[in-house]
Amino acid sequence: MDDATMLAELQPTAERLVDRHLGMAKEWFPHDLVEWRPPPAVGSAEAAEPLPDGVASALFVNVLTEDNLPYYFASIDDLFGRDGAWGYWTRRWTAEEGRHSIVLRDYLIMSGHIDPVTLERARMAQVTGGVSPEAASIADAFAYLALQELATRIAHHNTGKALPDAEGYTVMKRVAADENLHYLFYRDLVSAALEIDPSGMIEAIKRQVLGFEMPGTGILGFAQHAKAIARAGIYDLGVHHDAILRPVVLGHWDVAGRQGLTPSAEAARDRLVQFITRLGRASARVKRSRAGTIVEA
């Protein structure tokens, strides 16, 4: 199914999901979540205790990803168009994501967890670079955005749990709650798209699962930050398999049970299921290895 036809077919679903989102979304204000006080100088006696590498990396990547919002907006705006429910959703999503950037930066500056000069230089480099994922089709965009929003929600939530202060936990919990609503919007768009074009969506889901990367490409030192985040257990192979691929791709979307597929989509589905199965085995080996390390220590 071509993009224009899919958008037209899913217009009523988009309208319903936008209305549902507005009914569940809560108004909140960054200044209510972060206490304003003179920010501590990095390295001073008043500065916060240094965070573990993985937690600091997660905060660094989280806020810079949100800062890159103009490019994500441009990509989605080009795909969805500016009319009707599709255009309204893109603008509403952009407004909500922009608030995340505000509150995360407020928290980081006030807490002293990250040097603001380093953060600002990284922001300049990230936004000047303008790197963002580009979906080949509407089907690919729906699949990627559902996976990405859920991954972001999980990463934010786990980062909050790893922070040593209640303020940081509250900020990350609030941002994660928004990301969960964004995930639900895209998850259910994919479900609806699977009903009208199962073969096309299965192939798109396969492409996005096999090629999935967390947002952050273009961030200075992203590969090192990603490894630190994984070592900290905030987002790693096991989290990706256990919290996203198994419950959503195999569970909610039931890709293994889809009927009436084209031969190409059948092959894509088989490849997808095999990939998730192998990933599950690999994540289990990593968990056993970590457990063994803990026992030996």
Count of DSSP H/I helices? 13
Largest sheet: none
Q: In CATH terms, what is the fold-level topology?
A: Ribonucleotide Reductase, subunit A
CATH architecture: Orthogonal Bundle
Shape: globular
Total beta-strand segments = 0
Portion of residues in helices? over 70%
- Give the low-pLDDT segments: none
Helix and strand succession? HHHHHHHHHHHHH
Number of domains: 1
Distance between the termini: 56 Å
How large, in whole angstroms, is the Cα Rg?
20 Å
- Residue share in β-strands: under 5%
Give the integer mean of the pLDDT values: 90
Your description of this structure?
This protein has 297 residues and is an all-alpha fold. The chain has a single domain (9-232), classed as Orthogonal Bundle (Ribonucleotide Reductase, subunit A), CATH 1.10.620.20. Helices cover 75% and strands 0% of the residues. The chain has helices spanning 3-9, 11-24, 30-33, 53-67, 69-80, 84-111, 116-129, 138-162, 166-196, 198-210, 222-231, 237-252, 263-296.
Task: Break the fold down into its secondary structure elements and pairings.
Elements (H helix, E strand, L loop, with lengths): L2 H7 L1 H14 L5 H4 L19 H15 L1 H12 L3 H28 L4 H14 L8 H25 L3 H31 L1 H13 L11 H10 L5 H16 L10 H34 L1
Helix pairs in contact: 2-6, 2-9, 4-6, 4-7, 4-8, 4-11, 5-6, 6-9, 8-9, 8-10, 8-12, 9-10, 10-13, 12-13
